[in-house]
């Protein structure tokens, strides 16, 4: 069930990690990771508390699944990591050391950055501790840079004033799947008068209450598996039309990070006129180009924009607002669960299996190797030559092909 919680799902591998093909070795790693599981944001928590209050005003409860509500008090924290979320980042640090230990020595530790939100900073710090623990404390990375979210920041999505929201799309889907649930709960809780938005809020309480207390919340049992699939789609629409391809100015918010990624892969200075901080990116102290392991910590919305800027997870058609396509590849739980991670590997391959000797790139999202159809010459092993990968990123290399200007005009 937790894999139907959309962006509130705990991390799980979307596929088993595939080692590089014979003759290829990873020579550089670029990790982009979402913060771990957290309490609700202030606005979400306020909305949840209001919906709980509305349900509690029922005169009585006619179904045993609701009896816990009478004595339930909403008392979750705000914004910060929960202990489970801290553990997620610690575990990720262990996994990444074990997988990429060959890239690390005392003179070549991972370069770690974090966007300046407490939960993101804490996630980065927990990752470094997990990394150090896995190395028996032989290698202890440090958080080298915290990027101020009030200024230019390629790890947060706040710099496009004219960007739209996904409210209209999510409201449309909510009006499709929530009425039946609201009717049932109002029947079992006479006097509550739950509205459609209350259903989304109460369903959100299931993952938040579960991860905060590390046991399945009683709120989860109020809804069927089919209803949870509808909730998953609610989250899918939220991100697809908020920061993804359904939002005209969604992908452009990921351009700055992609241009930083290209700089690291090629060892060349950053070329960007969007979200990058020129002062930070022009300094070898705050943006080194000679590392083998880079680790950046960010937010789910920004990761969605970065997927869009790269060209990952393109859908044949925009997500339908009333009929989910079961064949879609856009599932928030696989794209941006808590502690989600995108890894861009740079590899050096010798001339084996018909492959030319040289540098290659492949991308994994939550360990799922991405096909990269946008990159000429990519085959089933997911490898694209570095030259072709750089060439494929014209959207980023042209600073969003005019979309960045639309953020302000």
TrEMBL record:
Coiled coil: none annotated. GO terms for molecular function: acid phosphatase activity; inositol hexakisphosphate 3-phosphatase activity. Keywords: Disulfide bond, Glycoprotein, Hydrolase, Secreted. The keyword Disulfide bond applies. The keyword Metal-binding does not apply. It is found in: Secreted. The active site is at 35 (nucleophile), 300 (proton donor). It comes from the Eukaryota. InterPro entries: Acid_Pase_AS (IPR033379), His_Pase_clade-2 (IPR000560), His_PPase_superfam (IPR029033), Histidine_acid_Pase_euk (IPR016274). Its main location: secreted. It catalyses: 1D-myo-inositol 1,2,5,6-tetrakisphosphate + H2O = 1D-myo-inositol 1,2,6-trisphosphate + phosphate; 1D-myo-inositol hexakisphosphate + H2O = 1D-myo-inositol 1,2,4,5,6-pentakisphosphate + phosphate; 1D-myo-inositol 1,2,6-trisphosphate + H2O = 1D-myo-inositol 1,2-bisphosphate + phosphate; 1D-myo-inositol 1,2-bisphosphate + H2O = 1D-myo-inositol 2-phosphate + phosphate. GO terms for cellular component: extracellular region. It holds the Pfam family His_Phos_2. Monomer. This is Phytase A.
């Amino acid at each position: 069930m937790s894999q139907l919680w959309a962006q509130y799902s705990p991390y799980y591998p979307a596929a088993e990690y595939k080692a590089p093909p014979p003759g290829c070795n990873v020579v550089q790693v670029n990790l982009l990771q979402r913060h771990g599981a957290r309490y609700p944001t202030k606005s979400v928590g306020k909305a949840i508390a209001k919906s709980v209050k509305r349900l509690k005003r029922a005169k009585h409860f006619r179904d045993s699944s609701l009896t816990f509500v009478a004595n339930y008090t909403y008392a979750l924290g705000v914004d910060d990591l929960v202990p489970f979320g801290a553990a997620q980042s610690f575990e990720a640090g262990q996994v990444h050391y074990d997988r990429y230990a060959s890239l690390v020595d005392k003179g070549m530790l991972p370069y770690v950055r974090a966007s300046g939100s407490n939960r993101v900073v804490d996630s980065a710090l927990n990752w470094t501790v997990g990394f150090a623990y896995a190395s028996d404390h032989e290698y202890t990375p440090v958080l080298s840079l915290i990027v101020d979210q009030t200024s230019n920041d390629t790890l947060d999505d706040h710099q496009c004033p004219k960007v739209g929201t996904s409210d209209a799309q999510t409201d449309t889907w909510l009006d499709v799947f929530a009425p039946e649930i609201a009717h049932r709960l109002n029947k079992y809780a006479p006097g509550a008068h739950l509205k459609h938005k209350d259903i989304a809020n109460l369903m959100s309480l299931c993952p938040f209450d579960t991860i905060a207390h590390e046991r399945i919340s009683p709120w989860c049992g109020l809804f069927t598996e089919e209803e949870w699939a509808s909730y998953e789609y609610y989250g899918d629409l939220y991100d697809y039309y908020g920061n993804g391809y359904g939002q005209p100015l969604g992908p452009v918010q990921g351009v700055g990070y992609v241009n930083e990624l290209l700089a690291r892969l090629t060892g060349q200075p950053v070329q960007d006129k969007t979200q990058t901080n020129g002062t930070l990116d022009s300094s070898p102290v705050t943006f080194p180009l000679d590392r083998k392991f880079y680790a950046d910590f960010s937010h789910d919305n920004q990761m969605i924009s970065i997927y869009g800027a790269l060209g990952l997870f393109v859908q044949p058609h925009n997500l339908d607002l009333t009929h989910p396509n079961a064949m879609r590849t856009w599932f928030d739980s696989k794209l941006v669960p808590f502690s989600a991670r995108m890894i861009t590997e740079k590899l050096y391959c010798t001339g084996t299996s018909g492959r030319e000797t040289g540098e290659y790139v492949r991308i994994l999202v939550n360990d799922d190797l991405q096909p990269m159809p946008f990159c000429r010459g990519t085959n089933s092993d997911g490898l694209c030559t570095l030259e072709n990968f750089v060439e494929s990123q014209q959207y980023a290399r042209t600073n969003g092909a005019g979309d960045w200007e639309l953020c302000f005009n």
